[in-house]
Amino acid sequence: MATPDPRELLELASEAAGEAGALAARGQAKVSVLDTKSSPTDVVTEMDRAAEELIRERLLSARPGDSVLGEEGGAEQGSSGVRWIVDPIDGTVNYLYGRPDWAVCIAAEVQGEVVAGVVVAPVRGEAYIATLGGGAQCDGVPLRAAPRVPLEMALVATGFGYEARRRARQAEVLRTVLPRVRDVRRGGSAALDLCGVARGQVNAYYERGLNPWDWGAAALVAQEAGARVGGLRGAPANPDLLIAAVPGLFEELHDLLEPLGADTDG
Predict the structure, then answer these.
(1) A Gene Ontology molecular-function term (predicted)?
(2) In sequence order, what E strands does 94-178 have?
(3) How far apart are the C-alpha atoms of 19 and 6, rounded to whole Å?
């Protein structure tokens, strides 16, 4: 079976994400909570599920042999070697509160490696795209992460989990991080925070408790813009901890977080 062209996968992902983003944007004003996940504050809206169903239909109609891993619908196995990683609304709490900082994320993975990614933030009017080795763009403009700065001059984005014990631990870690950096931002969407690194809007980002659909597309955007994305002690990005920053700053932030046990709940 021929290896698919990442540009073709990107085009399909862009079309599906754009359509799902438009659907979700139209429904934001009348959104309601449909369900909860890990805690009462970890919500699922009706639109999360509707947008993911639309994306699955578009992807599998075009490529019926592919696999899909979605935040809401779980895994669907195919035999083509291509897997789509889908987050229909990253930043659901922002979405629920009428805030603009949410995004539709679709990554295309071939034989276990992400080769194309799309992050569409329809209310913000932004579309981030990347292909492996092909660079990253936002609305047609090439992206480049900000040049390295010392840790004490870095604007660092982060996020928090939904369970009380994890949040308490993350607050303890943050209490040590905050005096060591320029300042901290909490945007509420992991994907848009990673794209913020790619765009130079923040210097670095870290968070515990993410899943592949949170970072799949956006991590490729950040990497193709010149950032390093990984976990602690040489591990790849994983649910224990994800760090993103340009080389040099990545290592400084890593060395601050590691002894704090930022990859644990205490």
Answers:
(1) metal ion binding
(2) 103-110, 113-121, 126-131, 135-138, 141-142, 155-158
(3) 20
pTM: 0.94
Q: Specify the CATH number for the domain of residue 59.
A: 3.30.540.10
Measured CA to CA, the distance from residue 135 to residue 41 in angstroms comes to 36
Query: Are residue 98 and residue 155 in the same domain, yes or no?
Result: no
28-42, 90-104, 114-128, 185-199: range with lowest mean pLDDT: 28-42
Looking at the structure, tell me whether residues 82 and 195 fall in a common domain. Answer: no
pLDDT value, residue 48: 87
Residues 199 and 110 grouped into a single domain: no
The annotation places the binding site at 71, 87, 89-90, 214
Q: Which tens digit of pLDDT belongs to each residue from 250-263?
A: 999 999 999 999 99
One domain for residues 163 and 66 = no
Encode burial over 163-182: b for 16+ CB neighbours within 10 A, e otherwise. Answer: eeebbebbeebbeebeeebe
Q: Which residues participate in the annotated binding site for Mg(2+)?
A: 71, 87, 89-90, 214
pLDDT at 39 over 70: no
Last residue of a domain, one of 142, 165, 187: 142
Considering the domain boundaries, does residue 25 fall inside one? yes
* Domain hosting residue 131, numbered range: 6-142
User: Is residue 86 within 8 Å of residue 35, measured between CB atoms?
Assistant: no
